[in-house]
């Protein structure tokens, strides 16, 4: 039984989080809004896109100002100030998560996914297993398989309406000796868990016992809601671990222009990564990435706090609405990330009927859970970083669509 949140009113200035008029003219170029993609996946463009994990809001004005200054110079010489970038990321993490990071212990990479692809090749052998915890961000599987490695699945369990790690299965899989890497999603996309310190400690104890490297993707680290506390793998003093501190992609809406940042206190691991990225000349940023990242982490705090309050309000509204109006749908309350995960089994619809309900009646483009390795076609993910009024209208349409639909299973 989900307890209602008390503050699901819109308590922040929705003006700031309304897409600017300029966006409408170019929105067809955004993958999230691309009409060809929508037609291909959902069979219609008449849907609100809640699939790709991009936000629908204008970014923080200090970042826009930094970009404007950069453009006004009319000069794009080689430029990457990694010292200031790493110092800014460290200061941000100290302030937000009380996490002590040494600026010299970072390695810059082009992006989070390319970092994962590189780490898989650097630290595992062909055919070796890489463990993931499904349902999980679908690109993990693609990267593992395209590197010729084997996916080892430590499926998450649902206990009291919440996803948890199956530690017995985790240990069993590691004990077989064919897992070379654990690829953790922390916080977890799509189920919205923010792994607790004790869960991560338990995981680490087992990994240590079998000498397995942990790689922790922490790109959603800052989007953590009241009542939950983010723990970085970098704080656990496990020398056989690499943390992808991430980038300002998800928290500051910079998916198109951000880099990735790997962190490890272990110098031998760092040297291996540095050598690989240098060998491919991938070890630096560019002017856009550098200026955007510094502006975000040095001057973006007020905007980010307002953004977090806004999306937490949206989360609370959705959870309250579902509990009151559509209790037959299971809503997994996200502790972090702007993703919410639903189980529509209680509607007793066929997979085809459910898809029609969501796309044609509710006009919502949600991501099918099967993309994330979920076998049951009743699961869907929604990215709720959209204007609250739009989200509310979508859920009213969903409620109406459900009232009009006839279960045929
Ligand atoms: C867990 C996770 N990792 C990585 C990414 C993508 O990172 P990047 O665009 O920097 O490669 C996403 C995007 O949604 C994500 O959810």
TrEMBL record:
List the SUPFAM superfamilies: PLP-dependent transferases (SSF53383)
Q: Which Enzyme Commission numbers does its entry carry?
A: 4.4.1.13
What cofactor is this protein dependent on?
pyridoxal 5'-phosphate
Q: List, for all copies, the residue spans of the domain called Aminotransferase class I/classII large.
A: 87-390
Keywords for this entry?
Lyase, Pyridoxal phosphate
Cross-referenced Pfam families, in alphabetical order? Answer: Aminotran_1_2 (PF00155)
Q: Which domain of life is it from?
A: Bacteria
Q: Any signal peptide, and if so, which residues?
A: none
Record InterPro entries: Aminotransferase_I/II_large, Class-II_PLP-Dep_Aminotrans, PyrdxlP-dep_Trfase, PyrdxlP-dep_Trfase_major, PyrdxlP-dep_Trfase_small
Concerning its family, UniProt says: Belongs to the class-II pyridoxal-phosphate-dependent aminotransferase family. MalY/PatB cystathionine beta-lyase subfamily.
Record-given protein name: cysteine-S-conjugate beta-lyase
Species name: Shewanella japonica
């Amino acid at each position: 039984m989900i307890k209602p949140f008390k503050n699901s009113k819109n308590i922040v200035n929705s003006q700031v989080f309304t897409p600017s008029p300029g966006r409408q003219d170019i929105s067809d170029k955004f993958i999230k809004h691309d009409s060809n993609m929508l037609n291909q996946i959902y069979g219609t463009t008449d849907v609100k896109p809640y699939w790709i994990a991009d936000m629908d809001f204008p970014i923080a004005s200090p970042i826009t100002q930094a970009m404007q200054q950069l453009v006004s110079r009319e000069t794009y010489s080689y430029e990457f100030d990694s010292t200031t970038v790493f110092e800014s990321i460290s200061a941000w993490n100290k302030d937000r998560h009380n996490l002590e990071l040494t600026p010299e212990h970072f390695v810059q990479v082009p992006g989070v996914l390319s970092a994962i692809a590189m780490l898989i090749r650097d630290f595992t052998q062909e055919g070796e297993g890489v463990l993931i915890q499904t349902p999980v961000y679908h690109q993990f599987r693609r990267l593992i398989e395209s590197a010729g490695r084997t996916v080892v699945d430590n499926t998450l369990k649902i206990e009291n309406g919440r996803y948890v790690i199956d530690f017995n299965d985790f240990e069993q899989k590691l004990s077989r000796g064919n897992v070379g890497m654990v690829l953790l999603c922390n916080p977890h996309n799509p189920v919205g868990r923010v792994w607790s310190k004790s869960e991560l400690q338990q995981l680490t104890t087992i990994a240590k016992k079998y000498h397995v490297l942990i790689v922790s993707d922490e790109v959603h680290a800052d989007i953590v809601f009241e009542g939950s506390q983010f723990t970085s793998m970098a704080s656990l003093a496990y020398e056989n671990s690499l943390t992808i501190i991430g980038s300002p992609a998800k928290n500051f809406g910079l998916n198109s222009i951000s880099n990735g940042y790997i962190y490890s206190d272990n110098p031998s691991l760092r040297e291996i990564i540095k050598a690989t990225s240098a060998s491919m000349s991938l070890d630096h940023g560019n002017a856009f990435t550098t200026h955007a990242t510094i502006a975000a982490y040095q001057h973006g705090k007020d905007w980010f706090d307002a953004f977090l309050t806004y999306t937490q309000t949206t989360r609370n509204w959705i959870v309250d609405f579902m509990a009151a109006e559509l209790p037959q749908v299971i809503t997994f309350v996200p502790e972090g990330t702007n993703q919410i995960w639903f189980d529509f089994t209680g509607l007793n619809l066929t997979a085809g009927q459910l898809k029609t309900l969501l796309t044609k009646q509710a006009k919502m483009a949600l991501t099918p859970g099967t993309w994330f390795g979920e076998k049951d076609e009743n699961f869907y993910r929604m990215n709720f970083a959209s204007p609250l009024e739009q989200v509310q209208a979508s859920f009213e349409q969903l409620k109406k669509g459900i009232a009009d639909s006839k279960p045929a299973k």
